[in-house]
Amino acid sequence: MTESNKIQGNLSLIDTDILIFILKNNKNVIEKSKEYQQEFGQLKISELTYYECLRGYKNNKSTKKLELFLKLIEMIEVIPLTKNIYNKASEIYVKLRNTGFPTGEFDLLIATTAIENDLSIVTNNTKHYMKIKEFFNLKIDNWLI
Questions:
Q1: Global pTM?
Q2: 40 exposure class (CB count in 10 Å sphere: 0-12, 13-18, 19+)
């Protein structure tokens, strides 16, 4: 494995899309999640990622995927939303909106969860988070590349 393909050397928050790739058994993402767990321990997700997956599988009546998700979630730390996260997210929202770069509420709260907990965000949706990275030093990693 080359240095550029290694996981970042810091704690991370797994975005919804990456968790879905884990559930789909994507070889590259599985390899990096195992490497991450060996170095740092338990994977971490936001409460919003938990909600997005739960509602998606229930809405699509994907019973087997829901069961797999619920088994996987037992091994994952779910980070709750706090007043500090909401306060910081409102600051980020105002800054982005005033500079002409509004973002989706879930992405905003997931990114703020990472920032407030000093975590990098692992996502394949890097463009969703680029302005937050630019203005608020969000660390981004992508386990698909």
A1: 0.89
A2: middle
